[in-house]
Amino acid sequence: MSNIYMYVVDRDFGFAPNPFHGYCTLATCKWKIRNSAEVEDWVIGMGGSTLKATGKCIFAMRVTEKITFNEYWTIPTFLDKKPVRNGSQKMMVGDNIYYHDSSSNKWSQADSHHSNADGSVNLDNLNKDTSSSNVLISKHFLYFGREAPVVPHELLNTIGYQNRIDHRVFNENTTNGVRPLIEWLHSQGSLNQVISDPFNFSDSEKRYSVNNNKVS
Question: Which domain holds residue 120?
């Protein structure tokens, strides 16, 4: 029995989620979803007023793996997900940024979109992100970015979805309309490809702080 987690994407840099290098990953932000979602569940990110994309689907990913930060950091497959701040736009927004040292019981944060401007650790972001130590991995995803399609109102109305703070959870087997929504999404583009650049991709070099909810 699969669940569908839906939320409004406020910022779309290609960082959370990160759709590059063959996998769509959710490794920062949305710690409640990262903590609760399991393999076979879906995570769907909808546009809102901030992106001027209300009613559009930014991405949809079916969780195919759920691993820890330390596994994400050490598995060679995800090496390209580590950020390189003087690299390409794709590399600048890498989301593989956390490692926990059990001997010292301390978290390390790589120089990234969630670090301070000088590359030092942003403790506010670190504390928020590590509220869950899980990373959601998908090898079955649709990432639309700037070409996000408008989801038919009847599909959203049937399941009772509304844009609002925090996420909503729907059950695939018991909620009318969820399966038609997934089928519709599959008809909108090719799997496991970045169909268009993220909305905020031109600002890849900028940093975000949860302390003041600003990008600079």
Answer: 3-199
